[in-house]
Amino acid sequence: MSPLVRSGRWMYRRLARAYPRDFRAVCGDGLERLGDDLVPLVVQTQGLGGLVRLLADAAIRLPIEHASTWTRALKEMTMTEDPFEGTWKANNEQSNWDPNYTPEQACLRFEPTATGYLLVAYGIKDGQAVAERPTPIVADGRKRPLVDLNGRPIPGVPPGAMMYGNRPNARTIEAGCEVDGQVLGGGTYTVSDDGRTLTVATEGMGAKGPFKTMAVFEKL
Predict the structure, then answer these.
(1) How far apart (Å, rounded) are the C-alpha atoms in residues 94 and 201?
(2) pLDDT by residue (tens digit) across 22-63?
């Protein structure tokens, strides 16, 4: 192991351990393990400049997560009642995952935005920390171009792909994407009456082929 990789891993671990306790508790040591996996790859492909950018991204996100933790605590104190907002952790025993996409741990976080939610999904798959691209959900029945958070095309997404969202009732969100009228993938998110569980039914096309899952998440 090169000194640069060894130093990069050490610095990433220190940053990971500085994240809020609630953030680190969701998926165990997943963030540290993600750094162990990413640092050698980044050093190999992008050199010192790539490592600096990787560490900078983690450092920039650190105060944001601490602010988010304090904001969530403040909202809980003021009894903000949003059935989706917050972090949810999968109960694998009650879930029916697709065999090709079964994680050891899975978490979802719904962050309210001015237009709806930002859905963040992450967890552990095959012993490695993984995270999906954050997805905006605007449940107003309209279709919008499927682009990243900066308005740029997403690699691997067909040109002309559109995302959509609906909210048939206060505890249900339907969201997905399509291209030329053909659905690429979608899901239904339903919060129980007591607000403690979130049932997610999704299907579509992934890296390992088509999938169909039904997962149960518990509010943290």
Answers:
(1) 13
(2) 666 655 556 677 778 878 888 888 888 888 888 888 788 778
